[in-house]
Specification:
Shape of chain A: globular
Mean pLDDT of chain A: 89
Shape of chain B: globular
Helix content of chain B: 25-40%
Structural class of chain B: alpha/beta
Largest interface: A-B, 26 and 30 residues
Mean pLDDT of chain B: 85
Helix content of chain A: over 70%
Order of helices and strands of chain A: HHEEHHHHHHHHH
Oligomer: heterodimer
Structural class of chain A: mainly alpha
Largest sheet of chain A: 2 strands, antiparallel
Number of helices of chain A: 11
Number of helices of chain B: 11
Distance between the termini of chain A: 32 Å
Distance between the termini of chain B: 18 Å
Strand order of the largest sheet of chain A: 1-2
Strand content of chain A: under 5%
Order of helices and strands of chain B: EHEEHEHEHHHEHEHEEHEEEHEHEE
Chain lengths: 266, 342
């Protein structure tokens, strides 16, 4: 109850803040759309030169995939690690540590506010893409039903994973490299370039074994209706396991990090 | 006897810092092998603070004051020793502890920059689970004491430094903390704002009975607020006791002021002349000989002595001597400071 009231108050404050930076939020949203749309255009071009499809994917299938991927990317976006490094270096973490609320909660609300305030314009853009390229959905009601927990788990996993990386800032001053590494790995293994079924078998195997695909590709595949009920449930199970592991690792890293924290500049 | 609100035993904090020599060769060597050095910021200190006390924590930059405050507020883990604040080990950072204390740093902001303070206060109200009635009562009181009314609804980024400090104070005190750690609360403020903040701190202590541990580089803050001071230097406590006794303990000399009729006169035979302006002479004499010297002056100068005073050296001077690691023995010579226990 108390946490809910705190969330409500934080939400109001963050919304007020977001209202002052509407253009910035809109631009961030557009940046997030550009990459998948470029990939969609590229794959559509390749498909049209190869008789209308690549590996069984028609232009419509690619459209569905990249529209779903854009939506999932938006809903699971997490950028906390960048801010956390800054907060530690500038001493801004200290005031948060002095309050009886874990600093994680501020980020959760900040994250949610960005998504809430940009979801409508994003949806409008996506509808435009669907109509322009002619998306083809195989989505069944159970897909929609299972997409909800899957995208939640993916968002939490991405959020906790970036926080896990962020805790490195307790030990090293500059951790941009770690973030870049995460983004590169996500680019390759999460299904950002192409649907996982189009990549070589060995890359598929690695992608299934690593956590990145479960942050993006997995809910995307469920939403576009390419999974069976069993495989959807298995995917959700794997997401839950990765989330659990990441959470435990984060808790451990956070506790050790705080012992290390030198509160410089604050 | 009441239990101390703050108790500290052999508290230590050692920072491990990366050390690198200058030059290209050293830069390359540091890529392969890093050298670290242990820097003791707090080297084993002991003290206790009773409920309702206002204690000044004095020391030069790098003495260990802020590090101690950060350990006592739970921001830093110590390297060794023990501390309890309100019966809690601070660095465990239990919610029950965090709800009962605050640390306010003069150069740091805890408010959201882009929204009015009143909105940040509402967030703090929920974080600290402050009831509606208590919130309203406290906010009204703080608004009155700090004259916040015109500031509450402006975005924080539009406030001046002094205005922002007042709002920061209110933010840190909304939950009515029993222990208040203040680190340089008047830093960078103009003289009149410093005076207002001082009045506020005194009033806060009087009204709420909060225990206050305060660091400041401005002696005026300390003199106005603290009867007791703890002097820390190189991570060790040099003095812990009444501010009034500090001069006696740390500066074993007094200043004799003589106002002379009929122009200047050489009084160097009585002690070290520190100033001589228009017949107003100040002489530094060893504390033990102060009474005898004044008697001699009265006897020797007779009618030509218009006025005579005997006073402790200014507190700033005493502190400056302490910080520079020296102590006058009354004749201009120096000797090592001895640790002074309370």
């Amino acid at each position: 109850m108390k946490l809910l009231a705190t969330y409500r108050a934080l939400l109001v404050a963050q919304l007020q803040q977001a209202a002052q930076y509407r253009i910035q939020a809109l631009l961030w949203m557009l940046f997030a759309i550009i990459r998948p749309v470029i990939f969609l255009a590229a794959w559509a071009a390749v498909a049209s030169t190869q008789g209308g499809s690549v590996g069984g994917f028609s232009v419509g299938d690619f459209t569905t995939y990249f529209v779903c991927l854009t939506l999932v990317t938006h809903l699971t976006m997490a950028w906390n690690s960048h801010e956390f490094e800054f907060e530690i270096r500038q001493g801004r973490l200290s005031p948060k540590l002095l309050r009886p609320l874990h600093p994680l909660h501020y980020s959760i609300v900040d994250n949610a506010v960005f998504k809430l305030t940009t979801i409508l314009p994003l949806s409008a853009v996506l509808v435009g893409v669907v109509l322009t390229f002619g998306a083809r959905f195989d989505t069944q009601p159970f897909h929609v039903l299972l997409f909800v927990p899957s995208v939640f788990l993916a968002a939490e996993l991405a959020f906790m994973f970036t926080w896990l990386i962020a805790t490195l800032a307790f030990w090293v001053t500059r951790m941009r490299t770690a973030n870049t590494l995460f983004m590169r790995a996500s680019f390759i293994f999460a299904g950002q370039i192409a649907p996982i079924s189009l990549v070589p078998d060995w890359l598929q195997a690695i992608s299934y074994a690593l956590p990145f695909w479960y942050m993006l590709g997995a809910p995307t595949e469920i939403l576009r209706g390419s999974t069976t009920l069993t495989s959807s449930l298995l995917i959700i199970g794997a997401q839950a396991v990765w989330l659990g592991l990441t959470y435990v690792a984060f808790t451990f890293a956070w506790r050790s990090g705080l012992r290390q924290y030198s509160a410089v500049g604050a | 006897m009441t239990a101390p609100v703050v108790s500290v035993r052999d508290l230590k904090k050692i920072y491990r810092v990366h050390e690198r020599e200058t030059g290209l060769g050293a830069t390359f060597r540091s890529l392969v092998k890093r050298r670290y050095k242990d820097v003791p910021a707090v080297a084993g200190i002991d003290f206790g603070i009773e409920p309702g006390e206002v204690v000044g924590f004095l020391g030069p930059n790098g003495a260990g004051k802020t590090t101690t405050l950060k350990m006592l507020s739970g921001l830093l883990f110590p390297t060794g020793g023990e501390a309890q604040v309100l019966g809690h080990v601070p660095w465990r950072r239990e919610d029950r502890f965090l709800r009962r204390m605050t640390l306010l740093m003069g150069n740091r902001t805890q408010l959201v920059w882009d929204i009015p303070a009143a909105d940040s206060f509402l967030v703090l109200k929920e974080i600290y689970a402050i009831g509606d009635a208590q919130y309203k009562g406290t906010l009204d009181e703080l608004t009155e004491l700090l004259e916040l009314a015109p500031l509450l609804h402006k975005p924080v980024r539009q406030l001046s430094l002094g205005e922002r400090m007042k709002v920061e104070f209110a933010a840190g005190l909304l939950h009515r903390p029993e222990v208040v750690f203040l680190d340089e609360p008047t830093l960078g403020l103009d003289v009149s704002m410093q005076a207002r903040i001082r009045t506020f701190i005194r009033e806060l202590n009087r009204r709420s009975g909060a225990t206050i541990l305060l660091t400041s580089h401005y002696m005026d803050d300390i003199v106005a607020l603290c009867r007791r001071v703890i002097v820390i230097h190189h991570g060790r406590i040099l003095y812990d006791g009444a501010l009034a006794d500090l001069a006696e303990r740390m500066a074993p000399y007094k200043l004799v002021g003589a106002t002379l009729r009929g122009g200047a006169r050489d009084l160097s035979a009585y002690g070290q002349v520190v100033s001589d302006v228009g017949g107003q002479v100040k002489i530094r004499v060893p504390r033990a000989q102060a009474a005898e010297t004044t008697a001699r002056l009265v006897r020797d100068l007779g009618e030509s002595l218009a006025d005579l005073s005997l006073e402790d050296p200014p507190i700033e001077e005493v502190i400056d001597r302490v910080f520079s690691g020296e102590q006058l023995d009354g004749t201009g010579g120096q000797r090592e400071l001895a640790g002074v226990a309370r």
